[in-house]
Amino acid sequence: MRSRPIGFLLTALAGAALAFGGTTASASPSAAPAPGAASAGDVGTADACYTWSGTLREGSSGEAVRQLQIRVAGYPGTGNQIAIDGAFGPATKAAVTRFQAAYGLAADGIAGPATFNKIYQLQDNDCTPVNFTYAELNRCNSDWSGGKVSAATARANALVTMWKLQAMRHAMGDRPITVNGGFRSVSCNSAVGGAANSRHMYGHAADLGAGSQGFCALARAARNHGFTEILGPGYPGHNDHTHVAGGSGRFWSAPSCGI
Ligand SMILES: [Zn+2]
């Protein structure tokens, strides 16, 4: 920020104010580049959510890497999940490579301007991917409180879940994915008869409607995008939705779908 031209700052501030105003930025289909702001020396255009200022590669570390890991969490390879730990290791490199390939970029596992600009196109001013919102991921309360983790952690987990869903959505032809719920406080979970250890209480889980894809296609695709818990048709209580979640361990069950 410190070395950027003033117009850049104003644009960023305007974006920040917009995000701060409380109304979600989901109306904007993509993060608009700041007009005239990009110069030859800039790595990427300004972004109201998060702007990377360098190239990241295996061996890099810190908050910039952690922010990148959130965005590529949906590209861990089948059955895997990447750590959101700020350490750019082989798994992060592979995820970045898959992200790049998914969007037709040079797939070298090094995150530079082309990768960051694609991410800017894919995110709203509140850092959610353009096709998902915090509101969709929390139909229980407005402040993410009352779960099994802090409100901040629950919200952060939901953000990762949204980026996984964005990756899955893209892999399935960019058709809308219906999210019928996500985070639940302990009391919301009890009210709907959720499991005592439900990952909904951690912000990790999302319940998906059939949409145009169907429950089984969603369950199958979820295996490729970082979901360690997948419950769908044939699993008790899951004939009318597909449940996907992150978190440790793996449990996939959708017998009617061959999972
Ligand atoms: Zn669920």
Automatic annotation (TrEMBL):
Residues 61-118 form the Peptidoglycan binding-like domain. Gene3D superfamilies: 3.30.1380.10, PGBD-like superfamily/PGBD. InterPro entries: Peptidase_M15A_C (IPR013230), Peptidoglycan-bd-like (IPR002477), PGBD-like_sf (IPR036365), PGBDSf (IPR036366), Zn_M74/Hedgehog-like (IPR009045). Residues 131-245 form the Peptidase M15A C-terminal domain. It comes from the Bacteria. Pfam families: Peptidase_M15_3 (PF08291), PG_binding_1 (PF01471). Residues 1-27 form the signal peptide. Keywords: Signal. This is Peptidase M15. It comes from Streptomyces globisporus.
